[in-house]
Description:
The protein is an alpha+beta fold.
Amino acid sequence: MRGKRGRLAGGVIALAACARVVPPAGGPTDLAPPVVIAAIPESVSVLQGFDGEVEFHFDEVVSEGGAPNFGLGTGDLEKLIVLSPSLAVPQVRWRRTRITVKPREGWRPNTVYRVELLPGVADLSANRTRAGRVITFTTGAPLPLLFLRGRVVDWSTRRPQPRGLVEAILLPDSLPYRALADSTGRFSLGPLPSGEYLVYGVLDQNNDFRMDRREAFDSVRIAAGRDSVGELWAFRHDSTPPRLGTVARHDSLTLQLTFSQSLNPFQRIPPESVEVRLLPDSTAVPVLAVLPKELFDSLYPPRPPAAADTSAAGRARADSLRADSLRRARADSLRADSIARAREAARIRIPGAEPERAPAARPDPLGPLLTRPATYDRLFVRLGERLRPGAAYVVTVHGVENLGRVAGSARGVGRMPEEAPPPARPDTGQARRR
């Protein structure tokens, strides 16, 4: 009995070992990623009554991945295929040196299809492709010629969004064509059938190639004949107006209001839209201005420092500090000169050595864009009278808008901090008595 169990366990282990495809032992290490050597059908072609599979052929056996393709979009190969204009997860099959794709609902007649294989296909040595492949063909419709170009931007950071999801919906048929932006947020989606499009730029947080309800997005309508989408500034669309979170003291004449979401940066709230009342009597406090931080700092800069001490002792102290700073600057300069002379001497002693060059500054392709203002969630309310320490104020802001221009009234209460007691003076009587 024990012998039968041992042979059965050995057979199971052998079958499991045979089921895994691994590179052969020995030989040189494979460092080259797999290469797509053929794609079927031929791109930009008309195939009446097509009922086969789209195939990507590689120059070696590729890996199926650790997560199988069950039609849920979670398989390793399913994550690398974007099929349009279908929103369903396509049928993706691994066939050793091939990957085949077919829509789950079948090919529709007279339709332009776009099948994109994303970078990331691995071979048996875990080398991954860095470039993708796109096949575009029709099942009877005219050949597509339109390319939609633009950029996906995250409005919260004002930076281009790498691999941002782009979804172009052909109107009035509502056929969705999808693609991903490149590492700089730019995209060129096509070729597509001519017509009017509703184009979305989405921050696809869960990487499922679909726009979910809570994901940030922006949209623009593109008329027939146009191909420039421009910048899509994605942001969270909230159907509720902003709520007032905290009311705090900024300075003796200013309240700082913090809201539950970002506000519309194009909106300027007039002073009459804000009510400030002193509790418990609800006495109205005059409001002079309601501004975001940048405008507030430019119109109400902080007070200048106190006047310098012009006494003899103050002047002596200033002269001493100035002399110390000059000595430190002179020492730093001498140290820098000695380092430079030592490097020059080393270059002279080494024949053929080239002088050191400072690396050229490279422009940041993902730097902030300035075509739209920055978002903010704080407002500063300048008052016509000083805030009372320890008092409570109720603030109501009417008509405040979020980024989606949903407006409402926000209300909050804030209590001002108490003034700190003055420091106690030291008792000098005991020192005199001693």
